[in-house]
Amino acid sequence: MIYVNWYHHNMPKIFGVLSFIVNPLFIYLVITRSRSQMGNYRYLLIGFAVFDMVYSTAELLTPIAVLNSGYGFVTFITEGPFFENLEYGLHGVSTRCCFVSMSYAVLIIHFVYRYLILFYPQHVDKMLQPLGIIAMFLFFSAHGAFWTWICEECLAPNDEIRDIIRPAFQEVHHVNSDRISLLTGQYRNASDYVVYKSWIGISALTLFSMYCMTVYFVLGYQIMRKMNESCNMTHISVNLNRQLFKALVAQTCIPMFASFLPTIIAWYAPIFLINLTWWNNYVCNIALSAFPLIDPIVVIYFIPNYKNTLLVWLKLRKPKTSFTTTSMISTAFTS
Protein backbone atom coordinates (compact mmCIF):
# COMPACT_ATOMS: atom_id res chain seq x y z
CA MET A 1 0.00 0.00 0.00
CA ILE A 2 1.10 3.55 -0.74
CA TYR A 3 -0.23 6.04 1.80
CA VAL A 4 -0.66 9.50 0.25
CA ASN A 5 -2.55 11.45 2.91
CA TRP A 6 -5.52 11.06 5.23
CA TYR A 7 -8.01 12.67 2.86
CA HIS A 8 -6.92 10.61 -0.13
CA HIS A 9 -6.96 7.40 1.89
CA ASN A 10 -10.26 7.84 3.71
CA MET A 11 -12.58 10.21 1.86
CA PRO A 12 -13.12 7.94 -1.20
CA LYS A 13 -14.01 5.09 1.18
CA ILE A 14 -16.47 7.30 3.05
CA PHE A 15 -18.03 8.46 -0.22
CA GLY A 16 -18.20 4.85 -1.41
CA VAL A 17 -20.05 3.66 1.69
CA LEU A 18 -22.48 6.59 1.48
CA SER A 19 -23.01 5.86 -2.22
CA PHE A 20 -24.19 2.36 -1.33
CA ILE A 21 -26.68 3.90 1.09
CA VAL A 22 -28.00 6.80 -1.00
CA ASN A 23 -28.29 5.04 -4.38
CA PRO A 24 -30.48 2.15 -3.14
CA LEU A 25 -32.61 4.77 -1.38
CA PHE A 26 -32.85 6.66 -4.66
CA ILE A 27 -33.90 3.48 -6.49
CA TYR A 28 -36.59 2.90 -3.88
CA LEU A 29 -37.90 6.44 -4.40
CA VAL A 30 -37.94 6.02 -8.17
CA ILE A 31 -39.85 2.74 -7.93
CA THR A 32 -42.37 3.78 -5.29
CA ARG A 33 -42.83 7.50 -5.99
CA SER A 34 -42.80 7.69 -9.76
CA ARG A 35 -44.18 4.41 -11.09
CA SER A 36 -47.22 6.05 -12.73
CA GLN A 37 -45.75 9.47 -13.27
CA MET A 38 -42.59 9.14 -15.32
CA GLY A 39 -43.25 6.07 -17.41
CA ASN A 40 -40.16 4.40 -18.80
CA TYR A 41 -37.88 7.27 -17.83
CA ARG A 42 -37.70 5.77 -14.36
CA TYR A 43 -35.71 2.85 -15.83
CA LEU A 44 -33.00 5.25 -16.98
CA LEU A 45 -32.88 6.80 -13.51
CA ILE A 46 -32.53 3.34 -11.97
CA GLY A 47 -29.81 2.49 -14.49
CA PHE A 48 -27.97 5.66 -13.52
CA ALA A 49 -28.10 4.66 -9.83
CA VAL A 50 -26.82 1.14 -10.59
CA PHE A 51 -23.96 2.63 -12.59
CA ASP A 52 -23.12 4.92 -9.67
CA MET A 53 -22.78 1.91 -7.36
CA VAL A 54 -20.59 0.07 -9.87
CA TYR A 55 -18.50 3.25 -10.15
CA SER A 56 -18.09 3.30 -6.36
CA THR A 57 -17.09 -0.37 -6.40
CA ALA A 58 -14.36 0.35 -8.96
CA GLU A 59 -13.18 3.28 -6.82
CA LEU A 60 -12.91 1.06 -3.74
CA LEU A 61 -11.17 -1.80 -5.57
CA THR A 62 -8.63 0.34 -7.46
CA PRO A 63 -7.89 3.55 -5.57
CA ILE A 64 -5.53 5.73 -7.59
CA ALA A 65 -3.24 8.69 -6.96
CA VAL A 66 -1.31 11.09 -9.20
CA LEU A 67 2.31 12.20 -9.08
CA ASN A 68 3.96 14.87 -11.22
CA SER A 69 7.44 14.06 -12.49
CA GLY A 70 8.88 17.06 -14.28
CA TYR A 71 7.30 17.26 -17.72
CA GLY A 72 5.06 14.29 -17.03
CA PHE A 73 2.45 12.84 -14.73
CA VAL A 74 1.86 9.39 -13.28
CA THR A 75 -1.49 7.86 -12.33
CA PHE A 76 -0.88 4.82 -10.15
CA ILE A 77 -2.72 2.35 -7.99
CA THR A 78 -2.19 2.76 -4.25
CA GLU A 79 -3.75 -0.37 -2.71
CA GLY A 80 -6.38 -3.02 -3.24
CA PRO A 81 -6.53 -6.55 -4.67
CA PHE A 82 -4.64 -5.58 -7.85
CA PHE A 83 -1.82 -3.74 -6.13
CA GLU A 84 0.64 -6.65 -6.04
CA ASN A 85 0.18 -7.76 -9.67
CA LEU A 86 1.60 -5.47 -12.37
CA GLU A 87 -0.45 -6.90 -15.25
CA TYR A 88 -3.79 -7.02 -13.43
CA GLY A 89 -2.98 -3.70 -11.82
CA LEU A 90 -2.50 -2.03 -15.22
CA HIS A 91 -5.88 -3.32 -16.36
CA GLY A 92 -7.34 -2.20 -13.04
CA VAL A 93 -6.04 1.38 -13.36
CA SER A 94 -7.19 1.60 -17.00
CA THR A 95 -10.62 0.25 -16.14
CA ARG A 96 -10.90 2.62 -13.20
CA CYS A 97 -10.07 5.57 -15.47
CA CYS A 98 -12.55 4.47 -18.14
CA PHE A 99 -15.43 5.07 -15.72
CA VAL A 100 -14.97 8.76 -16.51
CA SER A 101 -15.91 8.14 -20.15
CA MET A 102 -18.74 5.77 -19.21
CA SER A 103 -20.26 8.45 -16.97
CA TYR A 104 -20.20 10.70 -20.04
CA ALA A 105 -22.02 8.00 -22.03
CA VAL A 106 -24.77 7.65 -19.41
CA LEU A 107 -25.38 11.40 -19.48
CA ILE A 108 -25.53 11.45 -23.29
CA ILE A 109 -28.18 8.71 -23.18
CA HIS A 110 -30.24 10.81 -20.77
CA PHE A 111 -29.91 13.89 -22.97
CA VAL A 112 -31.02 11.89 -26.01
CA TYR A 113 -34.05 10.61 -24.11
CA ARG A 114 -35.07 14.13 -23.06
CA TYR A 115 -34.51 15.32 -26.65
CA LEU A 116 -36.77 12.58 -28.05
CA ILE A 117 -39.46 13.32 -25.47
CA LEU A 118 -39.75 16.86 -26.82
CA PHE A 119 -38.98 16.47 -30.53
CA TYR A 120 -39.86 12.88 -31.46
CA PRO A 121 -42.14 11.46 -28.74
CA GLN A 122 -43.29 8.69 -31.08
CA HIS A 123 -39.76 7.21 -30.99
CA VAL A 124 -39.21 7.34 -27.21
CA ASP A 125 -40.48 3.82 -26.57
CA LYS A 126 -37.93 2.42 -29.02
CA MET A 127 -35.07 3.36 -26.67
CA LEU A 128 -36.26 0.86 -24.05
CA GLN A 129 -37.19 -1.92 -26.44
CA PRO A 130 -34.67 -4.77 -26.92
CA LEU A 131 -32.87 -3.20 -29.90
CA GLY A 132 -32.75 0.18 -28.17
CA ILE A 133 -31.35 -1.36 -24.98
CA ILE A 134 -28.71 -3.23 -26.99
CA ALA A 135 -27.76 -0.02 -28.81
CA MET A 136 -27.43 1.89 -25.52
CA PHE A 137 -25.34 -0.92 -24.02
CA LEU A 138 -23.03 -1.00 -27.05
CA PHE A 139 -22.68 2.79 -26.96
CA PHE A 140 -21.93 2.69 -23.24
CA SER A 141 -19.41 -0.15 -23.69
CA ALA A 142 -17.73 1.56 -26.64
CA HIS A 143 -17.07 4.63 -24.50
CA GLY A 144 -15.39 2.52 -21.84
CA ALA A 145 -13.51 0.32 -24.31
CA PHE A 146 -12.08 3.29 -26.24
CA TRP A 147 -10.85 5.01 -23.08
CA THR A 148 -9.31 1.78 -21.77
CA TRP A 149 -7.63 1.05 -25.11
CA ILE A 150 -6.08 4.53 -25.32
CA CYS A 151 -4.79 4.25 -21.75
CA GLU A 152 -3.17 0.86 -22.27
CA GLU A 153 -1.82 1.53 -25.77
CA CYS A 154 -0.53 5.08 -25.31
CA LEU A 155 -0.04 5.66 -21.59
CA ALA A 156 1.22 2.30 -20.32
CA PRO A 157 4.81 2.51 -19.04
CA ASN A 158 7.90 0.96 -20.60
CA ASP A 159 11.41 0.60 -19.17
CA GLU A 160 12.37 4.13 -20.26
CA ILE A 161 9.39 5.68 -18.49
CA ARG A 162 10.07 3.70 -15.32
CA ASP A 163 13.64 4.98 -15.33
CA ILE A 164 12.38 8.56 -15.65
CA ILE A 165 9.81 8.38 -12.86
CA ARG A 166 11.84 6.24 -10.43
CA PRO A 167 13.55 9.19 -8.64
CA ALA A 168 10.26 11.04 -8.12
CA PHE A 169 8.60 7.97 -6.62
CA GLN A 170 11.56 7.32 -4.37
CA GLU A 171 11.65 10.94 -3.19
CA VAL A 172 7.92 11.38 -2.54
CA HIS A 173 6.64 7.92 -1.61
CA HIS A 174 9.86 6.03 -0.83
CA VAL A 175 8.91 3.07 -3.01
CA ASN A 176 10.32 1.42 -6.11
CA SER A 177 8.11 2.43 -9.05
CA ASP A 178 9.11 -0.75 -10.92
CA ARG A 179 6.65 -2.63 -8.71
CA ILE A 180 3.74 -0.20 -9.16
CA SER A 181 0.97 -0.46 -11.76
CA LEU A 182 0.58 2.92 -13.42
CA LEU A 183 -0.27 5.03 -16.46
CA THR A 184 1.87 7.97 -17.44
CA GLY A 185 2.29 10.78 -19.93
CA GLN A 186 5.71 12.30 -20.64
CA TYR A 187 5.80 15.45 -22.79
CA ARG A 188 9.54 16.23 -22.84
CA ASN A 189 12.94 14.86 -21.74
CA ALA A 190 12.26 11.42 -23.19
CA SER A 191 12.67 9.60 -26.48
CA ASP A 192 10.56 10.69 -29.45
CA TYR A 193 8.61 7.43 -29.23
CA VAL A 194 7.56 8.06 -25.62
CA VAL A 195 6.76 11.74 -26.20
CA TYR A 196 4.73 11.12 -29.37
CA LYS A 197 2.84 8.26 -27.76
CA SER A 198 1.99 10.41 -24.74
CA TRP A 199 0.80 13.30 -26.89
CA ILE A 200 -1.35 10.99 -29.02
CA GLY A 201 -2.92 9.42 -25.94
CA ILE A 202 -3.68 12.67 -24.12
CA SER A 203 -4.89 14.38 -27.30
CA ALA A 204 -7.25 11.47 -28.02
CA LEU A 205 -8.68 11.54 -24.50
CA THR A 206 -9.06 15.33 -24.65
CA LEU A 207 -10.88 15.26 -27.99
CA PHE A 208 -13.09 12.44 -26.73
CA SER A 209 -14.01 14.44 -23.63
CA MET A 210 -14.69 17.54 -25.72
CA TYR A 211 -16.99 15.58 -28.03
CA CYS A 212 -19.05 14.57 -24.97
CA MET A 213 -19.21 18.17 -23.70
CA THR A 214 -20.28 19.33 -27.17
CA VAL A 215 -23.15 16.81 -27.24
CA TYR A 216 -24.34 18.08 -23.85
CA PHE A 217 -24.34 21.71 -24.96
CA VAL A 218 -25.94 21.09 -28.36
CA LEU A 219 -28.73 18.84 -27.08
CA GLY A 220 -29.17 20.99 -23.97
CA TYR A 221 -29.61 24.10 -26.10
CA GLN A 222 -32.14 22.36 -28.34
CA ILE A 223 -34.10 21.06 -25.35
CA MET A 224 -34.16 24.46 -23.67
CA ARG A 225 -35.23 26.17 -26.87
CA LYS A 226 -38.07 23.68 -27.37
CA MET A 227 -39.30 24.14 -23.80
CA ASN A 228 -39.31 27.92 -24.22
CA GLU A 229 -41.45 27.59 -27.33
CA SER A 230 -43.73 24.95 -25.78
CA CYS A 231 -46.35 25.50 -28.47
CA ASN A 232 -47.92 22.04 -28.34
CA MET A 233 -47.34 21.32 -24.65
CA THR A 234 -49.52 21.97 -21.65
CA HIS A 235 -48.27 24.17 -18.85
CA ILE A 236 -48.11 21.10 -16.61
CA SER A 237 -45.95 19.17 -19.06
CA VAL A 238 -43.62 22.10 -19.51
CA ASN A 239 -43.14 22.43 -15.75
CA LEU A 240 -42.33 18.74 -15.36
CA ASN A 241 -39.89 18.75 -18.25
CA ARG A 242 -38.22 21.83 -16.78
CA GLN A 243 -37.76 20.04 -13.46
CA LEU A 244 -36.23 17.00 -15.13
CA PHE A 245 -34.07 19.13 -17.40
CA LYS A 246 -32.74 21.10 -14.42
CA ALA A 247 -31.87 17.81 -12.72
CA LEU A 248 -30.09 16.64 -15.87
CA VAL A 249 -28.14 19.90 -16.18
CA ALA A 250 -27.07 19.61 -12.56
CA GLN A 251 -26.05 15.99 -13.16
CA THR A 252 -23.98 17.17 -16.12
CA CYS A 253 -22.22 19.83 -14.06
CA ILE A 254 -21.05 17.18 -11.61
CA PRO A 255 -18.77 15.24 -14.02
CA MET A 256 -17.84 18.48 -15.77
CA PHE A 257 -16.40 19.94 -12.57
CA ALA A 258 -15.51 16.65 -10.86
CA SER A 259 -14.09 14.80 -13.90
CA PHE A 260 -13.53 16.87 -17.05
CA LEU A 261 -11.88 20.01 -15.64
CA PRO A 262 -9.75 18.22 -12.99
CA THR A 263 -8.43 15.71 -15.53
CA ILE A 264 -7.69 18.42 -18.11
CA ILE A 265 -5.73 20.35 -15.49
CA ALA A 266 -3.89 17.20 -14.38
CA TRP A 267 -3.00 16.28 -17.97
CA TYR A 268 -1.71 19.64 -19.17
CA ALA A 269 -0.15 21.31 -16.11
CA PRO A 270 3.12 19.29 -16.46
CA ILE A 271 3.65 20.79 -19.93
CA PHE A 272 4.39 24.08 -18.18
CA LEU A 273 6.33 22.41 -15.35
CA ILE A 274 3.48 23.16 -12.93
CA ASN A 275 3.52 20.59 -10.15
CA LEU A 276 -0.07 19.94 -9.11
CA THR A 277 0.43 16.73 -7.14
CA TRP A 278 -1.38 18.33 -4.19
CA TRP A 279 -4.32 19.31 -6.43
CA ASN A 280 -4.62 15.84 -7.91
CA ASN A 281 -4.59 14.00 -4.59
CA TYR A 282 -6.46 16.46 -2.40
CA VAL A 283 -9.04 17.66 -4.94
CA CYS A 284 -9.15 15.73 -8.22
CA ASN A 285 -9.24 12.14 -6.96
CA ILE A 286 -11.56 12.96 -4.08
CA ALA A 287 -13.92 14.81 -6.45
CA LEU A 288 -13.99 11.82 -8.78
CA SER A 289 -14.91 9.51 -5.90
CA ALA A 290 -17.70 11.86 -4.75
CA PHE A 291 -19.51 11.75 -8.11
CA PRO A 292 -21.55 8.56 -7.44
CA LEU A 293 -22.79 10.02 -4.13
CA ILE A 294 -23.63 13.54 -5.29
CA ASP A 295 -25.38 12.40 -8.46
CA PRO A 296 -28.52 10.84 -6.87
CA ILE A 297 -28.70 13.60 -4.25
CA VAL A 298 -29.01 16.19 -7.04
CA VAL A 299 -31.88 14.32 -8.71
CA ILE A 300 -33.70 13.91 -5.40
CA TYR A 301 -33.36 17.64 -4.80
CA PHE A 302 -34.88 18.61 -8.15
CA ILE A 303 -37.77 16.10 -8.21
CA PRO A 304 -40.41 17.31 -5.69
CA ASN A 305 -41.92 13.85 -5.09
CA TYR A 306 -38.56 12.43 -4.05
CA LYS A 307 -37.45 15.44 -2.03
CA ASN A 308 -40.74 15.77 -0.15
CA THR A 309 -40.81 12.07 0.68
CA LEU A 310 -37.29 12.23 2.06
CA LEU A 311 -38.09 15.33 4.11
CA VAL A 312 -41.11 13.55 5.61
CA TRP A 313 -38.96 10.54 6.50
CA LEU A 314 -36.46 12.84 8.20
CA LYS A 315 -39.35 14.53 10.04
CA LEU A 316 -38.42 17.87 8.50
CA ARG A 317 -41.82 18.20 6.88
CA LYS A 318 -45.28 17.02 7.80
CA PRO A 319 -46.87 14.50 5.42
CA LYS A 320 -49.52 15.88 3.10
CA THR A 321 -52.43 14.07 1.57
CA SER A 322 -52.55 15.39 -1.94
CA PHE A 323 -53.05 13.88 -5.34
CA THR A 324 -52.30 17.05 -7.26
CA THR A 325 -48.70 16.19 -8.10
CA THR A 326 -49.56 12.69 -9.26
CA SER A 327 -52.33 13.84 -11.54
CA MET A 328 -50.19 16.65 -12.92
CA ILE A 329 -47.13 14.58 -13.67
CA SER A 330 -48.93 11.61 -15.14
CA THR A 331 -49.93 13.66 -18.19
CA ALA A 332 -46.33 14.19 -19.21
CA PHE A 333 -45.25 10.53 -19.38
CA THR A 334 -47.64 8.04 -20.88
CA SER A 335 -45.05 5.68 -22.25
From TrEMBL:
Swiss-Prot/TrEMBL keywords: Membrane, Transmembrane, Transmembrane helix
InterPro entries the record matches: 7TM_GPCR_serpentine_rcpt_Srj
SUPFAM superfamilies: Family A G protein-coupled receptor-like (SSF81321)
Pfam families (alphabetical): 7TM_GPCR_Srj
Membrane-crossing segments per the record: 14-31, 43-66, 93-116, 128-150, 199-223
Signal peptide: none
Protein name, as recorded: Transmembrane protein
